[in-house]
Specification:
With 507 residues, this protein is an alpha/beta fold. It folds into 2 domains: 220 residues, YjeF N-terminal domain (Rossmann fold), CATH 3.40.50; 272 residues, Ribokinase (UDP-N-acetylmuramoyl-L-alanine:D-glutamate ligase, 3-Layer(aba) Sandwich), CATH 3.40.1190.20. The protein is 40% helix and 15% strand. It is built from 17 helices and 18 strands. The protein has an 11-stranded mixed beta sheet, sandwiched between helices. A 7-stranded parallel beta sheet has the order 4-3-2-5-6-7-8, with helices on one face. Helix 3 links the parallel strand 2 and strand 3. The longest helix is centred in the last third of the chain and has 25 residues. The radius of gyration is 26 Å and the shape is elongated.
């Protein structure tokens, strides 16, 4: 992927980058950044309050996030709302800007209570903690967060839901569950991965008139069509099956044929010209009755077939000596290679296989879930999930691979240390076989000549969009199956090409 494609993707800044931007603009900002943030949050609060009366409760913390809360409280009161601010800290310890916001609230006659009392409210506003939170929430603020979550009322979080680690998406003990998060300056990684989406609700980004890129480059980007748009081209009329690549899916150990077939069907329906399935046991399965276009062969036979242009190894592979031998042969072939499931587990358990993977010059793509990622890194799953971006980047570095760490807010790592977060998809995709379909989609895109970077990002993004298409149609989230996703992925892929053509013609 060319870096120029990143300029059309939403930027993501980790805490350190946000701090650099704040420090650059803070001294001469007029109006002050806190006033700008408060105005932006007030706009979102008024939107959530549209057509509704009632009291508004603003929970203000001991730092600058609390200062934002006092600005919001004052502006909502000036708009005619009945507002009360909860504040349990020492005003004398507030920063200068937060202290000024506190004083302005008091000078207008604003009400302050020292505890978060239950009551009848139209809206709760979370201004307890922002990006500075680094340790588990305890004491009165943990109590406040639990009460806010238990009230069952609409919640607007300012910048970051309190209790959420904005770099990683971890819940630090307890975190606010908001219906909407008004985040300031730029998106943060933790809003988009792990617990972030469940805590944030919908998200609006308020840049506050700042040019972040002029101060610091983004740490990451949101995965989207701009990352693979140059490959969204219609097929030429003068084409044939050989024009679109030949895929081999190596897996299919006894009792695990389904995984290999799901991957193969996905590769076929995303547009690969020929799709072979390399099985370790071909007894009784000469053909896939649901998809007879697939060619089932002995795995060893396929690895020696010269017309194969892309390989995927892992779906239903198993952990046997035979499986390890097949993987060893695949690793030395000069072909793009997608590795999933037991192929990753075998590499994690063998220094020799790991060295072969790291030494490859042809593109290698890993698609681990968190447990497989933990095995690759020699740690536990909790460690991976506590720092998903860092874990993904380390796998990419260690194994010389492009990597997607699957899960809520999948993390994608590309060569050179660049990374993205994918936000398409929904909880219905947490089902058996979804990873096999993803492997097949990525492999099918590679077969059609997509670059390795674009195939990874495009495969993951389109995979999620296919799940969203099903969910919108009522086929999920509950009960969504991997087999159903394949046809939806084909529809989403063709729709993306048509949309890209329309955009080009209107440009």
């Amino acid at each position: 992927m060319h870096d120029s494609s990143f300029t059309q993707l939403a930027p993501i800044y980790a805490n350190a980058g946000i701090r650099r931007v704040e420090e650059h603009y803070l001294p001469g900002a007029s109006p002050k950044l806190m006033d700008r943030a408060g105005a932006a949050a007030s706009f979102e609060a008024l939107r959530m309050l549209a057509g509704r009366g009632g009291r508004v409760l603003v929970a203000c913390g001991p730092g600058n996030n609390g200062g934002d809360g006092f600005v919001v409280a004052r502006q909502l009161r000036q708009s005619g709302f009945d507002v009360v601010a909860a504040f349990a800290a020492d005003p004398a310890r507030l920063s200068a800007d937060a202290a000024q916001a506190y004083s302005a609230w008091r000078s207008t006659g604003g009400e302050i209570v020292s505890d978060l009392a239950a009551g009848t409210y139209a809206l709760l506003i979370d201004a307890i903690f922002g990006i500075g939170l680094m340790r588990p929430v305890q004491g009165i603020y943990a109590t406040w967060i639990k009460r806010m979550n238990a009230m069952g009322l609409p919640v607007l979080a300012i910048d970051v839901p309190s209790g959420l680690d904005s770099d990683t998406g971890r819940t630090l003990g307890v975190a606010v569950r908001a219906q909407h998060t008004a985040t300031m300056i730029a998106l943060k990684p933790g809003l988009l991965t792990l617990d972030g989406p469940d805590c944030c609700g919908s998200i609006s980004v308020h840049e506050l008139g700042l040019d972040c890129a002029a101060v610091a480059p983004p740490d990451a980007h949101v995965a989207g069509p701009a990352a693979y748009a140059r490959h969204l081209n219609p097929r030429l009329r003068n084409t044939h099956k050989g024009s679109h690549g030949s895929v081999a899916i190596i897996g299919g150990a006894p009792g695990m044929l389904g995984a290999a077939l799901l991957a193969a069907r996905a590769a076929l329906k995303i547009g690969a010209g020929r799709v072979y399935v390399g099985l370790q046991d071909t007894t009784g399965f000469p053909v896939d009755p649901a998809q007879p276009e697939l060619m089932l062969r002995a795995a060893l036979e396929l690895l020696a077939q010269p017309q194969i242009s892309v390989l995927a190894v892992g779906p239903g592979l198993g952990m046997s000596e035979t499986a390890a031998a097949l993987l060893r042969q695949a690793l030395v072939l000069p072909l793009p290679l997608v590795l999933d499931a037991d192929a990753l587990n075998l590499i994690a358990g063998s220094r020799a296989l790991a060295d072969l993977a790291a030494a490859r010059s042809a593109p290698t793509l890993f698609t681990p879930h968190p447990m497989e990622a933990a095995r690759l890194l020699g740690c536990d799953t909790a460690t991976v999930q506590a720092a998903r971006p860092a874990a993904t980047l380390e796998i990419a570095r260690r194994y010389n691979a492009r990597v997607v760490l699957k899960g809520c807010g999948s993390i994608l790592a590309l060569p050179g240390g660049s990374w993205l977060i994918n936000t398409s998809g929904n909880p219905g995709m947490g089902a058996a076989g979804m990873g096999d379909v993803l492997t097949g989609m990525i492999t099918g895109l590679l077969a059609q000549g997509w670059s390795a970077d674009a195939a990874l990002v495009g495969g993951v993004h389109l995979h999620g969009r296919a799940g969203d298409r099903l969910s919108t149609a009522g086929i999920g989230p509950n009960g969504m199956t991997a087999g159903e996703l394949i046809d939806a992925a084909r529809a989403e892929f063709n729709a993306a090409i048509a949309q890209h053509l329309r955009a080009d013609s209107n440009a």
